[in-house]
Structures are given as C-alpha cells and as structure tokens.
C-alpha cells in the first residue's frame, strides 16, 4: 500500500498530524514511512519555539558527519554516534544559533569542533528557512557560552550557502557581538527574506543591515527592536521594498521596570529625518505596531501618519497596570486613525496612566467613521467616551474596554452594555482603576 502514495503525499499527511508524538509513531511502521517522517522531524532540532530545549543527542548525531581526518582539540571528550542512516544535517530548516551553541558546549565541543559542525551544514547542502541569532528568553542557559558563541559567529562567512533560501531572519535584542560580517554574508547570498526582526546599536551594523535589506526582493514585514539612532540606516533602506506591508517598533524606552531581558539598552525611539521621510514613502504599509516605545510624541514622527492611509491594523501598547505611560503619543495615534478610518479593521490602544488623557476626539473618530472596524481595544476615562463606543456605527465583533477612572460607576457600564448588539461576539471590560487602588 505504501507504494500507492508518493513521498509528497506522505509529507502532506504527516505535516497534518497534530503532535510530534504522532509523527514519531510513524517511524515504527516501516522504512518507507520512516524515510518520509524523518526529514520533517529534523527540520528544527535546535528549535525557535520559546519553550523548546535542544536535546544533546542532536549534536551527537551531527558529530558523526565530521570526517575522521578532521582534527579537533585533543582535550575534547566527545560522544560520537556511528554513521547515521539518514542525512540529518540536510533536513535542517530552522536554526536558533544560541541554542545550537548551548547544545554543542553541553556535548563538550570546543570552538574548533563547533566550526566544523557549521561547515558540515554547508557540505550537506543545508538550506535554512528561518534563522535566529539570540533568544533572550533562553539567556539563562547561554551566559556561560557567550565567549564561544562570539568566537564562532564570524565563521558563518565560510558557509553562507545555507542562507540562500532564508525567508525569516531574527537578530533582535543586542547580544554584544560583532554582526556586520554576518549581515554582509547574508546579503550576498540571500534575496527572498520575507520577515526581518533586528536590533541596531552600532553604525557599521546599521550600514551592513541596510545593504542586506536593499538586497531583498520580497520583504513583507520589518520589526525594529530595542535600537538607537543607527537604526536610521536600515529604515532608509526600506524605501525600495514595494512588498513591505507591516512595520513594528518595540522596546525602545528608558523604564527599567519594564524590561527583564539579559542584553538591553535603554533609549527612546529616535530616527533621523531621512529615515522618517523614507518610511513615509512606504505607502503599501497596512499594519503598524508600537510596543513599549517612548519618544513617539515627537513631531518628527507625524509625517508617517499622513501617508499611511490604508491601514487595516494599528496597535499601540505600553506598560502594565502597575507601570504607567507618561508619553502617550495621542496626536500621532489620532492622525493615523483619522487617515485610515475607512480601512481599519483592528485597533489596539493599550496604555495605563493615572493622569486623565483627553481622547474623546479620538474615540469619536473611531465610533463614527471607522465603519469597517471589527476589533477594538481601548482605555476609557469618561462616561462620554463609553457612550460613544456604545453607539459606534461599525462592524465590531470583539470589544475590550479597560476603565482608568474610578469615577465611572460600574452599574452605568453594566447598564449601557446590558443589551450588547448580537454582532459583538466578544466583550471584555477590565477595571484597572480599581486594581491600582
């Protein structure tokens, strides 16, 4: 019966299985099933998922592919398996560099052996789809391996062919190591990255990253994370990306209570005029997200609100119910909503402040003009704002309100929403004013 299905059909079936456990059971059926399942199981042995910890056995399997003639440090005590049945390195599609280093050091691999492992990826014609350098959530396992990782990273320039099919590149949060050489290597060997997430803190890295962006032909999503003024270089390079439809700015602030990351630089969001003007020319952008960013209330950012006229999603969030937003960019947010009120389907405004902020005009624009809006999350300070939301003339399906004013009577809120329109399938009301007191 196996011969009635091609490997392509089996791949489609196996990828539809709900868990890896189900896929592992396919290995036990017969050799044909195993040959179809193994490539899928070994696509991401070092993981990119935040909850994933690499197994030491993965490195032991990869070590078996290093030629016997290759010399390594004589002090190493390596556990090397016998010759594998499958070409495991060639199946690798998702690669988290810090997790790879941690797994290798756990297996007593020296810098020289790790470099040989990287070369194996190139020799076995590995073609990565997703590449992540540093996962801040994994940092507690990575600190002791920092020096080895710093020494090995430049050697990616010797195996750049593995990046030729890359579609996702994540270099966010500023792990303190020189990355300009890596950026240039990827730029010279890859043309079809669709999503880039980066942090920029040095001029040479900013310039190299700008070259990487210019070399791409199909970039759709760009995220700037925890960066300083040198991020202006890659932002300027976005101007020629005609497929770009989503931009994110995240974690650019000076609030030390708002960050638990190992490598973090405290600064506000700052870009030069050339970068803002270049971003304003990216008129195909329809999704904008700001998360934990300070400095957006500067007039410098206003030009983007006048040219982003077809947004379908706008998100702004800052702080927690215990961390207040002191610099909410109301003017920028109002302008973005005003210019895209006919197209917006999703608006998330999630900040926390003890001070009253007048957003009545903003809410009135949303309620009366955002006719296609389906999802709204917004803070409320007055009953007038609440009444405007209740009378909204749009297609709301999901509504989340959080009350920041204790003077708003809870019974008034319940009375207004006692007869929620049937089209709203999700309604959430949070009383942060009462949580904080």
TrEMBL record:
Keyword terms, alphabetized: Membrane, Transmembrane, Transmembrane helix
Transmembrane feature ranges: 408-435
Highest taxon above the source species: Eukaryota
Record protein name field: 20844_t:CDS:1
Biological source species: Dentiscutata erythropus
